[in-house]
Design brief:
- The protein is of the alpha/beta class and 207 residues long.
- It has a single domain (2-193), classed as Vaccinia Virus protein VP39 (Rossmann fold).
- The protein is built from six helices and nine strands, in the order ααββαβαβαββαβββ.
- The chain has helices spanning 2-6, 14-22, 51-61, 81-88, 100-112, 150-154; strands at residues 40-41, 47-48, 71-75, 92-97, 119-123, 138-141, 159-168, 173-181, 184-193.
- The strands form two sheets. It has a seven-stranded mixed beta sheet with strand order 5-4-3-6-7-8-9, with helices on one face. It has a two-stranded antiparallel ribbon with strand order 1-2.
- The N and C termini lie far apart (36 Å).
- It binds S-adenosylmethionine.
- The site of S-adenosylmethionine has 26 residues, from strand 2, helix 4 and strand 4.
Length: 207
């Protein structure tokens, strides 16, 4: 997976390659092809992104000071796999999921794989962020919304905090990186992606 799907497509960050080579994807998803080059179904009509997209988002979100000890917010826990990759990199992660059933299953899998101490899974509307542990060095939103929710911008660290999120329509988005410097926010387009919708107060409607 690392050689064929990541390195050949230009993922070069050695820490990210090592983390995706270490975290056992098959322990986060029940599928005959857990390492296939495609998204996979979870419960509740949701999906886990293909390995390349996880690597791309993780590479883009890397704080300039590195991952070790960084406080990171993930919106959209899903299976817990992306959160485990961030924890493997040394981050301290809080991950929000709106579906209680997925959150419970992700907690179980993170416990079983030894990541539970470094990942706190909470249930709620991630478009509101998680102020209790803000500010965050990095925020990864793993569902697509119409714009970056203001609460997430507010909860980014002011001196180089970095957010990565798919922005656009319900069916297709542009993966976008936003860097915060004081009250200035600089955006960068990382390419076209397809994610399930971000549902919430500052996202899409449920229907
Ligand atoms: N990162 C996940 C993983 O590694 O398995 C995959 C995430 S999946 C593509 C998107 C997830 O975002 C779904 O589980 C969905 O329920 C969740 N979601 C959508 N809107 C949300 C919101 N406002 N707050 C929290 N979770 C949300």
């Amino acid at each position: 997976m690392v050689a064929e799907q990541l390195e050949k497509r230009g993922i070069t960050d050695p820490e990210v390659l090592a983390a995706l080579g270490t975290v056992e994807r098959h322990r986060f998803v029940d599928d005959a092809q857990p390492y296939g080059d495609h998204a996979l179904p979870l419960g509740a009509g949701q999906t886990i992104s293909q390995p390349y997209v996880v690597a791309l988002m993780t590479s883009a979100a890397r704080p300039e000071s590195g991952w070790r000890g960084a406080s990171v917010l993930e919106v959209g826990t899903g299976s817990g796999y992306q959160a485990a990759v961030l924890a493997e990199l040394g981050a301290s992660v809080v991950s929000i999921e709106r579906h209680a059933s997925l959150a419970a299953e992700a907690r179980r899998r993170l416990q079983a794989t030894g990541f539970a101490e470094r990942v706190e899974v909470v249930i709620g509307d991630g478009t509101l962020g998680w102020p209790a542990r803000a500010p965050y060095r990095a925020i990864l939103v793993t569902a697509g919304g119409p714009k970056v929710p203001q609460p997430l911008l507010d909860q980014l660290e002011a001196d180089g905090g970095r957010l990565v999120m798919p922005i656009g329509e319900r069916e297709h988005q542009q993966l976008t990186q936003v860097d915060r410097w004081g009250e200035e926010f600089r955006s960068r387009d990382l390419g076209a992606v397809v994610f399930v919708p971000l549902i919430g107060e500052h996202g899409h409607s449920a229907t």
